[in-house]
């Protein structure tokens, strides 16, 4: 019987800023693997000895943004096999408290909390919540805002932020949603508002033929806890007044995944009846 060969196809998956998931392809004839870790590539500490045919290990309790050297040695009855030695770096923490502010028809300001050890940030944007593109790089760890300009009016946008330094990149922040404002803005006396706890910042606008477009995040008009963005017109009665009855119907709806935004298009009509009070 020969000693096992060196393990191959190793991966170090970044599970969090303090945890790496190590995987490798098992070698025939092994009785297990000794997993060791070092911070200088010279002095190693044994983390575990796995059972036979186990090609994975979760390295936990690691320091954020630190490069470690791992050594995985296949074991056998005739001695240790050739070790696999490789480096892996833990990511920086994900930026917290991401918010979208100062929203206009053509710009959105992205804000987030500073990440320790970061020397910069990359801001990513999407129009569908799935495919993200880098739209800004900030080469300062203390700058925690970015103005994204040149946007399209009344359009849903999604953002996340990732920190970096000279050693490693960070985990992505949570995704934040907002819709740019309409241009022209919603005409008075129409008003827009949220009801319930919505996801992100919605906006609405009125187009031709009385159509409204509403970009928003929420759970829907259902159950016992409504959560949505809506457009309204207040109705009132007075002496020699007209009573306006407003009707609306949906002419189109589009859902996004993740379900931060729903583009709803509805059409309104007004009917008036004259009333005289003597």
Stretches where pLDDT is under 50 for at least 5 consecutive residues are 237-251, 268-278
Largest sheet: 5 strands, antiparallel
Order of helices and strands: EEEEEEEEEEEEEEEEEEEEE
In percent, how helical is the residue content?
under 10%
List its traits:
five-stranded antiparallel β-sheet, elongated, 3 domains, mainly beta, 278 residues, Immunoglobulin-like, 21 strands, four-stranded antiparallel β-sheet, disordered C terminus
Chart the SSEs and their pairings.
Elements: E1 8-16, E2 19-25, E3 32-38, E4 45-49, E5 56-59, E6 67-75, E7 84-89, E8 99-101, E9 107-111, E10 120-126, E11 133-138, E12 145-149, E13 156-164, E14 169-172, E15 176-179, E16 191-195, E17 203-206, E18 211-216, E19 228-232, E20 242-255, E21 262-274
Antiparallel strand pairs: 1-2, 2-5, 3-4, 3-6, 6-7, 8-9, 9-12, 10-11, 10-13, 13-14, 13-15, 16-19, 17-18, 18-21, 20-21
Structure description:
The chain has about 280 residues and is mainly beta. It folds into 3 domains: about 10-90, Immunoglobulins (Immunoglobulin-like, Sandwich); about 100-180, Sandwich (Immunoglobulin-like), CATH 2.60.40; about 190-275, no CATH class. The chain is built from no helices and 21 strands. The chain has strands spanning about 10-15, 20-25, 30-40, 45-50, 55-60, 65-75, 85-90, 100, 105-110, 120-125, 135-140, 145-150, 155-165, 170, 175-180, 190-195, 205, 210-215, 230, 240-255, 260-275. Strands 10, 11, 13, 14 and 15 form a 5-stranded antiparallel beta sheet that branches.
